[in-house]
Amino acid sequence: MGAHLTMADIQPIIEPLTYRELWGAKCDQVCIAVKTAFIADLKATGASEALLTQAGAAADSIVAAERDTPEEYVCTVELSESTEKNAAAAQAAWTELKNRKS
Question: What gap in Å lies between CA 51 and CA 53, rounded to an integer?
């Protein structure tokens, strides 16, 4: 299944999951490893090394861009709810994509 995926397929998934995981790390909610779990799942589906590298690079660029954002701007109830909602939608999209591409 993973061999047929492209970055265009997973970009709308990796971004919200990365933001959610980043929010968790910045706000001491380290149990929120949704991006890490997605990359592992992507690898388990047989995604190419090139796609895994692209996904990792996309996630890394988000982390780098947000690295210096002060916690008081990140660790808010509004951002928590927003990233949680977006991550849930991304996870649903991933489930749908896996079902469609298999």
Answer: 5
What is the rounded average pLDDT of the residues 19-39? 87
Any idea what DSSP says for residue 68?
T
Cα 57 from chain centroid?
A: 12
Work out the pLDDT band at 13, boundaries 50, 70, 90: very high
Please classify residue 50 by burial: count the beta carbons closer than 10 Å to its beta carbon, then call 0-12 exposed, 13-18 middle and 19+ buried.
exposed
Q: At what angle do helices 49-66 and 34-44 cross, to 10 degrees?
A: 170
What pLDDT is stored for residue 31 in this prediction?
Answer: 67
**Could you tell me the residue ranges of all domains in the chain?**
12-94
Structure token digits, residue 86:
């977006």
